[in-house]
Write a structure and sequence with these properties.
Chain lengths: ~350, ~290
């Protein structure tokens, strides 16, 4: 296209500009050019060149759209870069993998994808392995989220009142939440280690024999749950605490005058204030725990055998170790569906809570 | 945390509560503490049975991470962690700055110039952050392979920018929402341009929020494992990946050295968490729950 100075282009846009007048604000023409360039470059050039050419075409469309909207459409203009980036890195890949989930394809082979319809979904949904992995995941989620809710709640009760040194001690408890899964995986591997590990040595004092926690399914599950719950109980505590401190003090004073019992005080005053936050904590942690990958991957690698392999780890193996790419994308979509449903639920309660407040 | 809520519900408890809380807190913090202690032990002390609580501290592990190589068989091998630490710092800093710029603009747009369907956009943005990383990574892995960006800095940086973006948008939006728009309107009446209103009026008011968002983004990126595992090459590897590979690897048995690496890796996070305490709740819930 010809390089018309921007000023002229704007004047034209304001005046009698037609869709074929070249100019930096003519996004319709740019879109048309892009629509021609994109398939043409895909057909004629090798993948790499085609990619960069398409990118350039997209950039031209973007520039013209920006010039066109400058000064008039502030909201869209401010939001556009973020949406564009998220489109490129999330929405587009997801659409791609959705398409791929209908194909038989292995990323480590040169063979082109072969259309298979719903075959991948059929394979997955009838595969007992997948159901077993989902069961393991459900077990881990129930155990770890349950532990987190209880421990987090008790910790919140401990820190509910003001006392000397509260801030510093609170920070000690809150730290695990901010640490990396890898570091925590490495920690707990060290603690569970049969010869030198603290746990084994502590047990040895009583039984006289070294203790190998990760050797049985129950032990390995316990190991995962301890590490994960240790990391995330502070999260529940933080949420509950913010509910506890929002209870107006006069309610407690009134309860004291009435000589209400501890349980009654809790049920009538405290609980209504923290109920919605407890629910949010439960949902948020369930979503996160459902995705559990790092801790399992680093701590037990799904072992012993495959007895602690969660669905996240299984998808990883199918995609990047067995390279059944088509199948893994179908599986990923099943996962996605579950998480989107849970996320919707979470946001529904977030909205409801902010409406209450 | 924030001092202001004392007026609301926090009742007083005495030193007895401090004692109880101290015991519980230290027990809770113990796993971290033990790693830090192990980092200061000699190889023999680290493997001592029963475990040693009192020992002569040494810095040899920290020196070994960067300066001296460790001995493998008869050959001296470099841990390579100087490079990995550089990669981690470089990649997280660059992607957080990018995400913060794009995210703050978007958050300002959503907060001040709502579009039709702003809630839908915000919902979609949050959903991208809630997605299981494993779901997103499969197509991205293929995409970066096609474009040849896999293994370099640019691919993983692009991904991390996008990874931080939803978080930055939601956090910054929650901060912008708390501002009153009156000051901005006053500036507009005085004839300031929109750009000037944003840069000179709105942005300075959310400076603390900007810092909190940046730090949270840095921690999230610094800790991230799966994307880095699949998208970085030998020379662009970040610390979490390198650390995971030491498990069961050559330095896997060198607990002291491993603990030193972990301590160096965790220290900035712990320090920064301490500075962040006011914003912790908002940060860990991605700005969906405010104080």
């Amino acid at each position: 296209m010809t390089r018309t100075p921007i000023r002229t282009a704007t004047v034209e846009a304001a005046g009698a500009s037609t869709w074929w007048t070249p100019g930096w604000s003519n996004w319709r023409l740019a879109l048309l050019v892009a629509a021609v360039v994109l398939p043409a470059s895909v057909i004629t050039f090798p993948v790499n060149t085609a990619f960069w050419l398409s990118l350039a075409a997209a950039a031209v469309v973007a520039v013209t759209a920006v010039v066109n909207a400058w000064g008039r459409q502030r909201g869209p203009l401010l939001v556009a870069p973020a949406l564009a980036l998220l489109f490129v890195t999330n929405i587009f890949p997801l659409m791609w993998s959705f398409g791929l989930s209908f194909f038989h394809y292995r990323a480590n082979r040169a063979a082109a994808p072969v259309f298979g319809g719903l075959a991948n979904y059929q394979t997955i949904l009838t595969d007992p392995t997948v159901w077993h992995r989902l069961q393991t995941t459900a077990l881990v989620v129930i155990l770890t989220v349950g532990t987190q809710m209880i421990v987090g709640f008790l910790l919140a009760l401990l820190f509910e009142k003001e006392f000397p040194g509260r801030r510093v001690l609170l920070m000690l408890v809150l730290t695990p939440m901010m640490l990396s899964y890898v570091a925590i995986g490495a920690f707990f591997r060290y603690y569970y280690e049969p010869t030198f590990g603290l746990l084994s040595q502590a047990v040895k004092v009583f039984t006289g024999r070294p203790f190998i926690l990760l050797d049985t399914r129950a032990g390995a599950l316990a190991g995962i749950v301890i590490a994960d719950a240790w990391m995330w109980s502070p999260f529940v505590m933080l949420l509950v605490l913010s509910g506890l401190v929002s209870v107006p003090a006069y309610l407690y004073e009134a309860a004291e005058v009435d000589r209400a019992s501890w349980w009654r005080r809790f049920r009538a005053i405290t609980f209504p204030y923290i109920r919605s936050l407890l629910l949010l904590a439960l949902l948020f942690r369930t979503i996160e725990a459902f995705k559990i990958f790092d801790v399992v991957f680093l701590l037990t690698e799904g072992g012993p055998g495959t007895s602690t392999e969660t669905i996240g780890v299984y998808v990883y193996r199918v995609a990047f170790q067995y390279f059944r790419t088509g199948q893994s994308t179908a599986l990923a979509y099943v996962l996605l569906f579950i998480v989107v449903v849970l996320t919707n639920l979470y946001l529904y309660f977030v909205k409801q809570r902010s409406a209450e407040a | 945390m924030r001092g202001g809520y004392r007026a609301r519900g926090v009742r007083q408890a005495g030193w007895s509560r401090t004692g109880l809380a101290a015991v519980v807190s230290f027990a809770y913090f113990f796993p971290v503490l033990w790693i830090v202690l192990t980092a200061f032990k000699t190889h023999n002390d680290a493997l001592a049975t029963p475990p040693k609580f009192i020992f002569p501290p040494t810095l040899e592990n920290f020196v070994a991470v960067f300066r001296r190589s460790y001995i493998k068989g008869f050959a001296a091998v470099d841990t390579g962690f100087d490079l990995f630490f550089f990669n981690s710092i470089f990649v997280s800093a660059a992607s957080v700055v990018l995400a913060l710029i794009i995210g703050t603009l978007a958050a300002y747009g959503f907060a001040r110039f709502p579009l039709r369907g702003t809630d839908t956009y915000l919902f979609i943005i949050l959903t991208t952050r809630m997605l299981p990383p494993i779901v997103v990574i499969i197509p991205i892995f293929l995409m970066l392979r096609v474009t040849g960006l896999s293994g370099g800095y640019s691919g993983v940086m692009l991904l991390y920018t996008a990874f931080n973006l939803p978080f930055a948008i939601w956090m910054m939006k929650s901060f912008f929402d708390e501002l009153s728009a009156d000051v901005e309107d006053a500036a507009r009446v005085d004839g300031s341009s929109e750009t000037r209103v944003f840069l000179k009026v709105s942005l300075p008011q959310v400076r603390a929020g900007l810092a909190a968002t940046a730090v949270f983004g840095l921690i999230l990126t610094w800790n991230e494992f799966l994307f880095a595992l699949l998208l970085t090459g030998v020379s662009t590897r970040t610390v979490p990946v390198a650390m995971a590979q030491t498990i069961g690897g050559d330095i896997g048995g060198r607990w002291g050295l491993l603990a030193a690496i972990e301590t160096l890796f965790l220290a900035p996070v712990i320090v920064v968490t301490f500075l962040l305490q006011h914003h912790l709740l908002r940060g860990v819930t991605f700005g969906t729950i405010k104080r």
